[in-house]
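Hi all, posting the design record for the shared folder.

TITLE: backbone redesign
STEP: 1 of 1
STRUCTURE INPUT:
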């Protein structure tokens, strides 16, 4: 039998474990927290140490807390994708909108106010937190209406918040629909795609009605197509836009009761949706040349 071996009690014991390497999840949590509290220098260090860090998650964190300097760094220097969404479908802009309805003017960068990107729908293109967005101009007495229109749905042009640029004027900051109007797609898409857009519009209208909102001005020029190819309703609720005027032939899409002086209703919206379908399928405005 081999003799027993006993440890030398005079020698200090040394633990036989190793410190585990830092995991990607640990570094991801650190950059998320640094972005959330606005520690720009810490964010830069963590990103430099690990090029595979989840920059989009950090971007959403910074946007949700209004850390504009971190947002600018991640987008401009690290090329973080402002349109990337998390597992529940939220982007950096949606996170930013969730922090409140008031958007500081410092976060808005004009792109082109000399040309209206959405015709009489009344939108102008801007950058908000380095992402494409649109704005509509309101008088100060319609501020409450603009704020209450913070509706979220894939088939509605989403409102992110309101920016007060002057005491008498407010900017309603909205989703940017890069593919413009449904009217621009009559002859450029397959008939099945056109019907898909019309179905999107119907679903968006159903959502508005479920939220107690009457659109009141539904026509194909107020159905916009987003970068994702999804149709979205714009200019709903008939808020007081001070820079746009209604077209002279608006009555083409209006129901008989509206023409008799009654206020817009769910039923009149359905009638207008029917006129939109006729317009899209025929490729021309309702009633054609017969309108006087």
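Okay, here is what came back for every position:
SEQUENCE:
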């Amino acid at each position: 039998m081999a003799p027993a071996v006993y440890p030398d009690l005079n020698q200090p014991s040394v633990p036989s474990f190793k410190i585990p390497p830092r995991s990607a999840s640990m570094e991801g949590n650190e950059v998320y927290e640094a972005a959330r509290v606005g520690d720009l220098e810490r964010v830069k260090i963590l990103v430099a140490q690990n090029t595979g860090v989840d920059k989009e998650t950090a971007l959403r964190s910074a946007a949700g807390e209004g850390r504009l300097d971190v947002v600018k760094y991640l987008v401009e220097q690290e090329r973080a994708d402002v349109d990337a969404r998390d597992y529940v479908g939220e982007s950096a802009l949606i996170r930013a909108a969730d922090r409140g309805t008031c958007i500081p003017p410092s976060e808005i960068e004009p792109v082109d106010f000399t040309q209206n990107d959405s015709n009489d729908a009344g939108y102008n293109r801007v950058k908000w937190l380095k992402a494409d967005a649109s704005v509509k101009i309101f008088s100060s007495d319609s501020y409450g209406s603009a704020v209450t229109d913070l509706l979220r749905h894939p088939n509605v042009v989403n409102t992110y918040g309101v920016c007060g640029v002057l005491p008498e004027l407010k900017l309603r900051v909205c989703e940017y629909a890069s593919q413009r109007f449904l009217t621009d797609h009559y002859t450029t898409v397959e008939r099945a795609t056109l019907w898909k857009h019309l179905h999107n519009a119907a679903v968006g209208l159903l959502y508005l009605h479920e939220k107690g909102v009457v659109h009141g001005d539904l026509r194909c020029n107020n159905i916009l197509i987003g970068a994702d190819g999804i149709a979205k309703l714009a200019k709903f609720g008939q808020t007081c836009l001070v820079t746009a005027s209604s077209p002279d032939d608006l009555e083409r899409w209006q129901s008989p009761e509206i023409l008799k002086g009654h206020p817009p209703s769910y039923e009149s919206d359905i009638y207008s949706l029917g006129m939109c379908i006729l317009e899209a399928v025929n490729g021309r405005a309702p009633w054609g040349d017969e309108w006087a």
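COMMENT: Residues 32 and 102 are 24 Å apart (CA to CA).
Let me know if anyone wants the other runs.
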